[in-house]
Records
---
Amino acid sequence: MLVFGVNIQAQTDMDGLMMAKRNLCGGIVVGQSKWDHYWEGTLYRNNLNIGTFQSQMAMAMANYGVSNKFNIIASAPYIENHSTAGTLRSQKGLQDLSVTGKWEFFGKGYKHAYVSLLALGTITTPLTNYVADYLPLAIGMQSKTASGKLMIDIQRNRWFATASAQYTQRGTVTIDREAYYTTEMIYSHLVNMPSVFSSNVRLGYRKNADLIIEAVYDRMNTLGGFDIRRNDMPFLSNNMEASRIGLNWKLPVPKIAGMSWMGNATTTIAGRNMGQSHILMTGLVYQGEFKAKNSPKK
Amino acid sequence: MKSLKIMGAVMVAVALYIGCKTEVVSENSVFPALEPLNADTNAGTWKPILLSKPDEFAVNNPIAVTSADYKLELLEIKSRQNNITDEERDMMNYWSAGVVLRWNEIMRELVAKYNLPPYQNPDGTYPIPSAANPLAYPFFPFANPPYAARAYAYLSGAQYDALVAAYHYKSKFRRPRPAKTDPSIKQLIPMTSDFVYPCEEAVAAGASAAILTLMFPGEQEFIQTKLTECTSARILAGGNTRSDIDAGVALGKAVAGKFIARARTDGAGKAVGTPTDWQFLKDRTEARGEIAWLSQETPARPPMLPLFGKVMSFLMDTTEVINSRPAPPPSTNSAEFKKELEEVLWFSQHPDRDRMKVVHFWSDGAGTYAPPGHWNDIACEDFVKQRWSEARWARNLALLNSSMFTAAVCCWDAKYYYFNPRPSQMHPDCKTLTGLPNFPAFTSGHSTFSGAAAAFLSHVVPNQASKYMSMADEASKSRLWGALHYRSDIEVGMAMGLAIGGKAVDRAKTDGAE
């Protein structure tokens, strides 16, 4: 997910909304991420032998309401990475499957607001044997990950605020080389991946579950890792950081009940050992069972 | 509640996933202590590379083991052993795997650290690293493949000659181990020899530190720390006293001095060339009616070490290099060239995962220990199992690295004599599967290095010969599969490499070690 530069679970694991029991929502999202500057360590630079890096993505996702308080979300993206300069071959393929359990363990209406607390657990696993040790063109990190997230969502009338913090443990990655240099020589096919901490704040307007407009601030950083050396290429276990701001929307598609148009525009405002991604995503999601509405929210 | 059960199941799944995080153990950290099967006590009679005779550099007579000064030296060992810390024990165990091995690893690490092409100047030219100012960007050196091949060869060569001298003097002076004089001294690691003056580990360390300082002048503090650790480990282990070590480091440095003097005049300092040289190469190739090599980097980077083909290596002189130069590659105007280009293009456009694995295994590009470092890695892993004496370790690495140094010289001579274009230059969709090196195609460096290494290694570890040959073949093919080289480059490079490795084998048969 880091490669694409933003959490691409189509927001459903980022928002404070729950699907009602036995509701199924499915969708397709397409997106594009671009950068022509990146941070080599903390040095902000361009690279005439990369030109503009461009990542395109198409993702299938589904969200199922096991109960009103527990949802399961799954997604899998197909990614193609390309650079406009240099001689390196583009990479493409199916990336990682992501499965999230989302549990609203507290929800209460107060005089002025409805407050809910959510816990989320996500696991991801690579779906194909794509090459990871080929950054920035690799489509993924080839790491199995497990994340835990806590979230608070406060809604007053149609205005809301959501905040979440997530910790991700990333499994060891096997690369094709038998030795590599980080800040020292390591003679192994295995690469230790630093864990990731991320936080996310969202403020916006929502009416039911199909009209949402929100502003997002997102920050991620690895807990450890090393800096890219001067004029070197990036590596899997780099110390990566990114701060981003963006705008998300989800709007009902007229005359087709259950169909929503969603999208986001995100830009990177600070980073380390990562590209300064500018991201656009858009998609259609369809909610399969119409009788039950989304879980009650004031 | 149902959702709680599911959440519980999710937690278990998450816990299992966290179990995916395995500890990464660097394979060199678990090498066993060196216990030679044969002490090679006659190594003082083996033929050195540069020394005219084993006692070219004098070593003072040791003080008597009955003297008061020597008793003080024994006391130093006992006091260090009484106060040994866990950290010191780790350090001692690390060095016990063999000092020739460990200094080879240190060189590999420094090559990887310094193997990065400099960033361009604002005007689009490139700065050239300067040995006189190694700490200012661009750091000196840019430890690219030819630089690395030469550095490994000087390191191993100096280690070998220094150990020939050390074995000569050890047999001459026959000073016993400290524990023979004072049985209360513990021997904490296996002892590799009966006679300990001068300390052979210190001789190898002194020589290694001097060569590393020449090759990586910005790393003196790091190198000095390693030298201190290496020699301290000998005292902690109860293997040597202070005078064994001091005499050893001094001898090692003296022998290295001979290699350093040679390195300063071997032509490598001029290998970068000048803009006039670079233009000449292009003009000469175009005058033959051929398309000349162009850098595929932006801004165009000057070719890597174009005059390296004139450097004096250890196994062939310049005339032999020119006389053994391969016949030209297919003309860029020929049908044969077109056919070879199409083959590269096919591999470029069909990047199968299994082939990519081979391409990346052998990529050994920027930021790595370079192809000669990879072969040192492969060799050392097998050498550990051979349980050779330090002298034999050094001799075999010296010949291995001499062959790869010579391979670099011959390969660079051909590259710049023909100055032919890479496939990516000739076809816009000939995209590469790993970084494209900034020098001409013919012949393939990987193939030449690998042929030379495999031919020599097959001689000293014959039961692994078929493995080395198939690895060399893979290394060579990886450059075609990665769309970096034409078939001619890899086939002719391999043949050159095998012939050069054969020269190292010829020398091995006559140096007195077999």
---
Amino acid sequence: MRRVRDRTRHSLSRRLRVSATLLTILFLTLVGIVIERAYQLNLLNAVESRLQAHIYTLLTVAELEDGELRIPDLLAETRFNQFDSGLYAFVLDSNSQLLWQSKSFQLLNHVELFTLSRDTQQFVQFISSGEQFNALGQGFLWQGLNGQTMPVTLWVLEDNDYFLEPLTQFRWILWSGLVLVAVLLHFGLWALMYWALRPLKDLARDVHAIEIGELEALPANYPREVRVLSQAFNHMLEHERRQLNRYKSTLADLAHSLKTPLSVIKALLDDPSCQGELRHQVTQQLTRLNQSVSYHLKRPIHQPAYLKQSWCAILPCAKRLTNALSKVYAEKKIVVTLAIKTNVMFPGQEDDLFELLGNLIENGFKYGDSRLQIFAHESTTSGDGNSTIRPQRTLTLGIADDGAGVPVAKRLAIMQRGVRLDAQAEGQGLGLALVNEIVDKYTAKLTIETSELGGALFKLEFVYTT
Amino acid sequence: MKIGIVEDEQTLREHLANGLRAAGYSVELAADGEEGWYLVEEFDLDLVVIDLGLPKLSGVELISRIREKKITVPILVLTARSDWQDKVEALESGADDYVVKPFQLEEIVARANALMRRSVGLASPKIEHGPFVLDTVSQKVTVNDVEVELTSYEYKILEYLMLHSDQVISKTRLTDHIYEQDFERDSNVIEVFIGRLRKKIDPESIYKPIETLRGRGYRFLVQDSKESQALLDQ
């Protein structure tokens, strides 16, 4: 089975930030190592040249007399004269016997410097008694004034401190410089990535705005690369919306084309010539058919979140419904009170709000005696300070009347599909079942209580994140 | 009382017409929006029943046109679409009530009755003028709590006169509201009905509720109202 990689674990900016940081560190470390190595080689060359110069200086003062090599006790280079100064020189004969040593020379344990054949030179690094030394040796065939010759090897040694000191200094400058460069580069890259990834962040924000209904389509002001995506997204959105509208109008047409024949059959059954059991049976089935058709045609259409309409204001919808229904129930002279502020919004589609309020307000008009109260208010439950938890808002919608109210025993039953409290009150069962469907769709909560007016109070609670 | 029915489905139209006729109303029919507009313009209707899904001129357009022309006839809408937005739109365009298809004929009759009463300012289905009480639902007439037997036409005339009490109703208007378009009009018939009505509801001629205004028509007015009317006339 193909393993599916979890692409959600790291965000794009995190991936870029981490990889840029790692690359910067790796690159600058390599650069540091190469530069340091080059400097080290350069420094060793300098040490060798310096030791070579000391050899030449010693050669100028050395003489071969009576088969013995003579070098003055005090030399121009004072470090040769000073004991344990760090600069030493000695001469070996062909049998590796010490012929001469500088005053600075200390007995180096385990130093096994060897003789070198004539005209050969060797640079060595060694450790003795825990100290590191750089040494340059050269083999000569010494010729005295009287023509006598003697094969000797001249070694000049220098304490490694003379090599390490400038190297340490250089290292400090190099690495602190590189760290500074790394830090600057790091911030530079972060700024660059923020700027480069900004359109993607904007895109995500705009898509969210579409989800919550604040935007209808993505704006056109993205960079070219993202614009291709946003245009395709907009086309898809538009296509889906059209599809949904087509679906809705097909349903509406279907409603019309189904209900008129149903009315006709009903009319035919009302004819006095049609009597008896058949009429009774057909009427019964017709009623079931009609209820089923009405219910399914009016069921809320579950549409994807991104197709949600803008939030809709509750007050205008409630006003239109109460004005219209006041006309229908004019005889009852019901006094309607709307306690809804203009800025209170319903977090969903206008169709659903109309169906919800329409069914509940009509019930209020039907069963209320003289007064009907409709209220809506919002409250906020703040998040826990963690940015991942957005504050939640609760919209409470209530429709209260002063009628007989709903008996406690029937409050649960009333919300079930098709259950009608009063068969005389046409459409109530269907209306409340549809209210229930919409409540389900928005994962809202519906409670039936006794209103302050003495009748029924239908209370709806919608919890949503902002 | 004359009711216009604007419905494109013939069977349904006939069914409605028969039902409303049986309930004592005279009926005029139209099969599309344009014909419906002709009905409303041509006849002094007491109510018009309009289906929303009409050919030529939609139900909402017809209602809007009726209201734009300041015609105040009560409108009952028939709709297959039971969306609240559609219902509200129909009511906002000028309809007074709606019935969702498929409907019970009794419901249409009850709503039509209520709408017509409301249009003349009556809240109750009973019209009371002194000792005369007319129940528009049961279609019974009582005088001093004693039921009076009336024929269908007598009832129709009395109902129309009582609904429009204090108003002078011409013979033509009475004929228009009681008979259908193709009925052969004869003003003498009205006079005969009025004569019979007077004998049935006020045999002793104590109240003289139906007044004849020569050359103008009839007026329903009971004694108390007559005195106040006389004061007003002075």
